[in-house]
Write a structure and sequence with these properties.
By secondary structure, this protein is α/β, with parallel strands linked by helices. It contains twelve helices and 15 strands. Helices cover 33% and strands 19% of the residues. The longest helix has 22 residues, at 155-176. The radius of gyration is 22 Å and the shape is elongated.
Length: 418
């Protein structure tokens, strides 16, 4: 007998999270004997708690296929972390109530580390309550900080965008540095892990090629050493390009750009490390500068997505359904690198107990000895992840994106207050 499935997106979206959604939905449609309707949560897990479900079964095959080349979160995402299961058991029980009311036996949660934790807890509670639910976490994060998986879907496309932007902006600065800007600072995402910042270093191939400095969260920020390096680059090459992670921090752990607030997940709100660093350049060295913050652009740039990333994002969604049908529970499809050259990979099942609430940081041997660049080992790791182009179709000069009907499912339960 076929039972229904629930899919939800969590946290910051990516250029390819909808490709994973496409993989999940298309795979479900290929197994009508096991999976009936597919419901999506409106605005992520909140949609399950409030019983705001979207009947994906009513979307056309063409609309679902178009998700593969559409950025953002097609069904809405959220930064909402379910509280501790012991003290907020009612939230988890509500999820099971909604799933039971709509005969949902498959739970696919597409997100990062926090959503892996939620997926694991929902799996554990459903077992305790005796409700037959198969919970599979679908990996996604631009930060590339999920453990076990070689890389995280979403990262490769951000890496390609940042490497490209660093290359192009560097040519701009080099053109003008004789009479204008001497220092350019590009701020990229990465709260605790410097993977995105490291990708900026792919823009340069040899000595003196920009970026001249990469500032990682894993290396304590030393103002004197950084300014000396900036000054040397300007004097040696005429200009200096810096890629800095938003999570850059001092020796004591204080962020350079701590806004003093926290988000829904309890993370410190960051932003403004580029102007902060540019201000140091002006104060200490007096050079004319420009700075930019890639912000949402880096994770929304589907027009420049990595072909590898798109393929992997779809594949983990597809594999999630296969694992569920096989009866695997509390698992995540993880990418396993088989070889660097030629680049080959496969997908294996990884237990959520080994993934939830854990982060993967840049290994020290990926960062150059002076702390301002990447090693050849890191370059070999990163390079395959930005390979290939997967351009979306264009209409009237703009990318064509999926247009979904988003039919709502009739509620069966009383209202639930978040």
């Amino acid at each position: 007998m076929a039972h229904n499935a629930f899919y939800a997106q969590s946290g910051g979206v990516t250029a390819v999270i909808n490709a994973s959604a496409c993989g999940v939905i298309e795979a479900c449609r290929r197994h009508p004997d096991q999976i009936g309707k597919v419901y999506a949560g409106h605005n992520g897990i909140i949609g399950a708690l409030t019983e705001e479900l979207i009947d994906v079964s009513q979307e056309s095959d063409e609309a679902i296929a178009a998700l593969r080349h559409t950025p953002g979160g097609a069904f809405g995402s959220c930064r909402y972390k379910l509280k501790d299961i012991e003290t907020h058991r009612a939230q988890y029980e509500r999820l099971i109530e909604v799933f039971r009311a709509h005969d949902i036996r498959y739970f696919f949660y597409n997100g990062g580390g926090d959503s892996a934790d939620t997926c694991l807890k929902v799996s554990q509670l459903s077992e305790k309550l005796g409700y037959p639910l198969t919970a599979i976490h679908v990996p996604k994060t631009v930060d590339n900080d999920l453990p076990i998986t070689d890389n995280s879907p979403g990262f490769g496309s951000v890496a390609k965008y940042i490497a490209t932007s660093t290359l192009e902006a560097s040519l701009d600065i080099a053109s003008m540095c004789a009479t204008s800007t001497k220092v350019f600072v590009l701020e990229v995402m990465g709260r605790h892990a410097g993977w995105i910042a490291a990708s900026g270093a792919l823009a340069g191939q040899g000595e003196g090629e920009p970026p001249h400095l990469v500032i990682f969260p894993e290396i304590a920020f030393d103002r004197e050493a950084v300014m000396a390096r900036v000054d040397h680059a300007v004097k040696q090459y005429g200009y200096c390009v810096i890629v800095v992670s938003e999570g850059a921090r001092y020796e004591d752990g204080t962020f350079l750009a701590d806004a003093g607030n926290t988000d829904a997940f309890g993370h410190r709100q960051l932003g403004g490390v580029a102007p902060t660093l540019a201000g140091m350049v002006k104060q200490d060295l007096g050079y004319k500068y420009h700075w930019a913050v890639a912000d949402y652009l880096q994770r929304a740039a589907r027009h420049l997505a990595s072909g590898t990333d798109v393929e992997q994002a779809y594949a983990v969604g597809e594999k999630a359904v296969e694992l569920a049908i096989e009866g695997k529970n509390a698992m995540m499809p993880a990418i396993k690198r088989v070889s660097d050259a030629p680049y080959q990979w496969r997908i294996e099942a990884a237990p959520l107990a080994e993934i939830a609430n854990r982060e993967k940081f840049m290994p020290r041997d990926f960062i150059s000895e002076d702390g301002f660049g990447i090693t050849e080992t890191c370059r070999q790791y990163l390079s395959p992840l930005i390979q290939g182009e997967d351009f979306p179709p264009f209409d009237n000069g703009l990318p064509r994106v999926a247009k979904l009907a988003k039919h709502r499912v009739e509620r069966k339960l009383p209202e639930f207050k978040l």
